[in-house]
């Protein structure tokens, strides 16, 4: 690639992404220029994503001749299927409407597969409104004295299917997968019932898709921005973050803290450190594609004490013991890479990733995460259900 196509530049922290940008005069575009999500008039742009033997090429209309030339040379070296408009990629079903500038992504074939795997019919089963019962608590105390191997194998199969969904296109499942995954080594019947409930939840939400291009009243339409939160329980905390771009979630994560936190403030501050790392990762990727931003990346916070800690260095007894690596956020606030404005807990989108929330809260945050489901792209046919 480097030898035959030097005009394609590898994104430094994403070794499988390449970009080529040329101006109207056929001169290379300076990718280091901070221009945000903007393309120059009549600019030619090609971005290639590679994963094992799959390749996805996104390009502007005026770069079609360059794409055709690349594909012809590629076919001289490798046996490849004919190029076609994207419909499926990496297990996801993709729809794109160029006129409306709407892009949707979903894993419905895997969702329907999980529902079938759990013995339900997606068209006739009764659904529920939350993945886990908000009033149910899961712990090691539920595990039986001896491992039920048959039950454990069933749980492992179900959990493996959910991991794929949660990672690729279902941020509404990540908290459930994180909680249940802590007890799969010796599962109880109660745990298995939780997987059955998730199947019923997917019956109700089976056609949800991530919809990008939704208008965003927060004025951050063209900049990625995030929310983070933490649930402090029994000294350990569950830290989460979720980043949105063009109206829907683009990156999310749930992580159980490995060390004890002495207060909810400390738990939130540690979670913010993880969110800051992801914000920097996104900023680097955007800049390496030529879409760097001069503005700091916004990470909303619902804890005023943490906002203060991130902006004002202090050496108080309550924070003196915190590991220096947890002050990572404070440093990048000073550098101007991130900013952490306050947002009320009721509007904290990451809240439903960190804990089991009641139906109204879960549905409100889920809808904001997936984007506007009413935008006019008809659901395409599922090629086949994954068993």
Secondary structure: elements and pairs:
Layout: E1 9-10, E2 17-22, E3 44-51, E4 54-59, H1 64-77, E5 88-89, E6 92-97, E7 102-106, H2 108-117, H3 149-168, H4 174-181, H5 189-205, E8 210-212, E9 225-233, E10 236-245, E11 248-256, H6 264-288, E12 297-300, H7 304-311, H8 328-335, E13 338-339, H9 351-354, H10 359-370
Parallel strand pairs: 9-12, 12-13
Antiparallel strand pairs: 1-2, 2-3, 3-4, 5-6, 6-7, 7-8, 9-10, 10-11
Helix pairs in contact: 2-3, 2-5, 3-4, 3-5, 6-7
Walkthrough of the structure:
By secondary structure, the protein is of the alpha+beta class. It is globular and about 70 Å long. It is built from ten helices and 13 strands. It has three domains: 9-84, no CATH class; 106-205, no CATH class; 217-370, 2-Layer Sandwich (Nucleotidyltransferase, domain 5), CATH 3.30.420.10. 33% of the residues lie in helices and 19% in strands.
DSSP summary, beta strand count = 13
Work out the strand percent: 15-25%
Largest sheet: 5 strands, mixed
Helix content: 25-40%
CATH topology of the largest domain: Nucleotidyltransferase, domain 5
Structural class: alpha+beta
Specify the CATH homologous superfamily of the largest domain: Ribonuclease H-like superfamily/Ribonuclease H
How far apart the termini lie comes to: 37 Å
Low-confidence stretches: 216-220
Judging from the principal axes of the Cα atoms, what is the shape? globular
- What's the rounded overall pLDDT mean? 85
The order of strands across the largest sheet is 11-10-9-12-13
Radius of gyration: 23 Å
In short:
This protein is of the alpha+beta class and about 375 residues long. It is built from 10 helices and 13 strands.
């Amino acid at each position: 690639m480097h030898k035959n196509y030097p005009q394609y530049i590898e994104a430094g922290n994403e070794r499988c992404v390449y970009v080529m940008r040329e101006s109207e005069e056929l001169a290379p575009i300076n990718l280091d220029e901070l221009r945000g999500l903007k393309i120059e008039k009549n600019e030619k742009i090609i971005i290639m994503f590679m994963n094992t033997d799959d390749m996805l090429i996104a390009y502007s209309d005026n770069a079609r001749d360059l794409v055709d030339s690349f594909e012809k040379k590629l076919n001289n070296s490798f046996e490849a299927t004919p190029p076609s408009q994207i419909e499926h990629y990496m297990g996801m079903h993709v729809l794109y409407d160029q006129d409306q500038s709407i892009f949707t992504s979903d894993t419905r074939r895997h969702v329907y597969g999980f529902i079938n795997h759990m013995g339900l019919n997606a068209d006739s089963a009764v659904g529920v409104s939350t993945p886990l019962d908000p009033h149910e608590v899961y712990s090691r105390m539920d595990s039986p004295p001896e491992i039920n191997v048959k039950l454990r194998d069933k749980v492992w199969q179900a959990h493996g299917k959910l991991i794929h969904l949660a990672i690729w296109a279902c941020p509404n499942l990540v908290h459930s997968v994180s909680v249940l995954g802590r007890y799969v080594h010796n599962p109880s019947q109660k745990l298995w019932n939780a997987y059955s409930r998730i199947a019923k939840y997917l019956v109700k939400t089976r056609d949800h898709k991530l919809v990008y291009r939704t208008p965003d009243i927060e004025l951050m339409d063209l900049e990625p921005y995030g929310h983070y939160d933490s649930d402090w329980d029994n000294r350990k905390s569950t830290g989460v973050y979720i980043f949105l771009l063009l109206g829907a979630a683009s990156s999310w994560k749930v992580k159980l803290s490995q060390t004890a936190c002495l207060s909810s403030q400390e738990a939130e501050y540690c979670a913010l450190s993880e969110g800051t790392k992801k914000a920097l990762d996104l900023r680097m990727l955007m800049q390496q594609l030529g879409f760097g931003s001069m503005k700091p990346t916004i990470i909303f916070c619902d804890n005023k004490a943490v906002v203060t800690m991130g902006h004002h260095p202090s050496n108080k007894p309550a924070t003196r013991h915190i590991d220096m690596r947890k002050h990572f956020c404070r440093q990048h606030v000073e550098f101007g890479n991130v900013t952490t404005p306050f947002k009320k807990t009721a509007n904290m989108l990451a809240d439903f990733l960190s804990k089991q929330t009641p139906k109204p809260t879960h549905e409100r945050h889920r809808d904001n995460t997936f984007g506007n489901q009413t935008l006019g792209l008809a659901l395409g046919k599922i090629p086949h259900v994954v068993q």
